[in-house]
Design goal:
Oligomer: single chain
Structural class: alpha+beta
Number of domains: 3
Strand content: 5-15%
Number of helices: 18
Order of helices and strands: HHHHHEHEHHHHHHHHHHHHEEEEEEE
Radius of gyration: 43 Å
Shape: extended
Helix content: 55-70%
Distance between the termini: 83 Å
Strand order of the largest sheet: 3-4-5-8-9
Length: 512
């Protein structure tokens, strides 16, 4: 919901754009990141007095002013220029050339650079400063904001009804800012409270000191939210009754952002209004954001009460988790030897050796890969790994069984295949490979001979001159031919540019 309010479109950025924006935080990962932070603070100090473009001397003067107030400012008499250039390379500031600052020819020849924050760079710097300035005790729920939101909604409906364009813009802008602040505060408060409740390092004294104020704070917030939520729902619907589209157009016309067109401004205000409406009005099947906040706050109250009960019982009985762990650590340290200490720790934390047995089912497709071990059917496990934990051996070697009939049948098939290949080779030698269509057997023999010929080819001056391949029946040569050759097979035409085939029987004449 917060993304809808603050207009974040980070999900729409591609990977290169995200990488460029992460580069703005490179100064936080350098060894002298504190020095870079003070350089940016000096530039921000100058920016606050409308010194947008500054050079190295201006930044150095601002650092000296900061050093008078803060002892943590580092001495940067040397290396300031390189740090400014590094920040410019990261894109957090812009580096510009300003020849007007050169008072002499020598200074003109030397590069006179001026620097200013980039828009995204300044936002990155402010984000880092916000993180550094954040304090846990600053988290709170703003219960007084609901009355302001209700007044703004009523004024918005009246302004839209009377056609006061500027008042519509002011009220929508104020509502957007108030909602952003409320969402940020509530998110920060619940994250901090969840950390306090679930952390094992919570100080009982600190928690018990502020428990009453914390419970009162959350109770007052829920009471105020319950009281104002029906009124806010009616106020939102009253605004919609005056015409949402008309209101958005009026707000866009009064919006003076120069870098957005009219359509873009209308879409932006439409998105903001839809986010605000989703916070205070419910739709069928979906609760409002305020209802979700109320449910989260009630759950947080329950968590605080549970933690309070736990701490109270621990203080009353004198035994809690910390004291138990301290006593256990003392027992382990006082154990007579290492084996006894290990046995005591294993018994305390229920640590024991587990023997896992498993295997594959005979029919893998019968068992779904998503089935758990609890639901899947069992399999048979050998007694050796079950009893001893060791894998069962292969056992005694079995005698080799010879199948004379199967071997004889395999030999007959091999002889028949070899005879067919020899007949096909003799047919190629007798009838040649050109000017006819080869059958399947002749094609296989030809491709085998051609493969051997290409593997044994000879290349002279970068050109193929000759090649030959043979078996125990025929010999095939690649003969240079200006016209080239072609062989027709059952699967198509095989072209041999620049060559013709000459097939010679080892016991007879040759055929082309």
């Amino acid at each position: 919901m917060a993304d809808s309010l603050d207009g974040s479109r980070a999900l729409d950025l591609d990977a290169p754009a995200i990488g460029d924006r992460f580069r703005l935080f490179n100064f936080t990962r350098r060894d002298d990141h504190v020095a870079y932070l003070w350089v940016l603070r000096a530039m921000e100090r100058l920016r606050a007095v409308h010194r947008v473009q500054v050079d190295g001397d201006d930044v150095m003067a601002a650092l000296r002013d900061l050093a008078l107030v803060h002892d943590e400012v580092p001495q940067l008499d040397t290396g300031l220029r390189s740090r400014l250039d590094a920040l410019a390379d990261d894109g957090i500031i812009h580096r510009l050339e300003d020849a007007s600052r050169a008072g002499t020819l020598e200074r003109y020849r030397n590069r006179q650079s001026v620097y200013q924050f980039s828009e995204l760079g300044y936002r990155a710097f402010v984000a880092v400063e916000d993180v550094l300035a954040a304090r846990v005790r600053d988290a709170n729920l703003s219960r007084l904001v609901f009355s302001d939101i209700l007044d703004d909604l009523k004024a918005l409906a009246a302004a839209n009804r009377t056609g006061d364009q500027e008042q519509v813009y002011r009220r929508l802008s104020r509502l957007n800012q108030v909602m952003e602040d409320m969402v940020r505060r509530s998110a920060q408060f619940h994250v901090t409270l969840n950390q306090i409740v679930n952390s094992t390092e919570t100080s009982p004294e600190l928690f018990l000191r502020y428990k009453n104020a914390l419970l009162v704070h959350m109770s007052d917030f829920m009471a105020e939210l319950d009281r104002y939520l029906p009124r806010l729902d009616r106020a939102v619907r009253d605004v919609e009754a005056t015409g949402v589209n008309t209101m958005l157009v009026r707000a866009a016309d009064a919006d003076d952002r120069p870098f957005l067109g009219t359509v873009e401004r209308i879409e932006d205000w439409k998105r903001r209004w839809q986010a605000l409406r989703a916070w205070f009005t419910s739709t069928p099947g979906q609760e409002s954001g305020a209802a979700d906040l109320r449910r989260a706050t009630r759950a947080a109250v329950s968590g605080v009460i549970a933690l309070l009960r736990q701490l109270t019982e621990a203080q009353r009985g004198g035994v809690n988790r910390a004291s138990e762990l301290r006593h256990l650590a003392q027992w382990i340290c006082n154990a007579p030897d290492e084996d006894a200490a290990y046995a005591l720790a294993s018994a305390a934390f229920n640590v024991g050796s587990a023997r896992h047995l498993g295997g594959a089912h005979d029919d893998v497709e019968e068992i779904s890969s998503s089935a758990t071990w609890w639901d899947a059917p069992g399999i048979e496990v050998a007694l050796t790994p079950f009893r001893t934990g060791r894998q069962a051996g292969p056992g005694l070697p079995q005698p080799v069984r010879s199948d004379t009939g199967q071997r004889a049948d395999l030999r007959r098939r091999q002889i028949a295949v070899r005879a067919a290949e020899r007949a096909a080779a003799e047919s190629l030698a007798a009838r040649g490979a050109h000017d006819r269509v080869l059958d399947e057997a002749e094609t296989r023999v030809l491709m085998s001979l051609l493969t051997r010929a290409l593997e044994a080819r000879s290349v002279v001056a970068g050109r193929l001159k000759s090649g030959s391949g043979s078996d125990d029946t025929v010999l095939m040569r690649l003969v240079p031919d200006v016209k080239g050759g072609a062989v027709r097979t059952p699967h198509g035409m095989l072209h041999l540019p620049g060559f013709a085939l000459e097939i010679v029987s080892r016991s007879g004449r040759a055929r082309g």
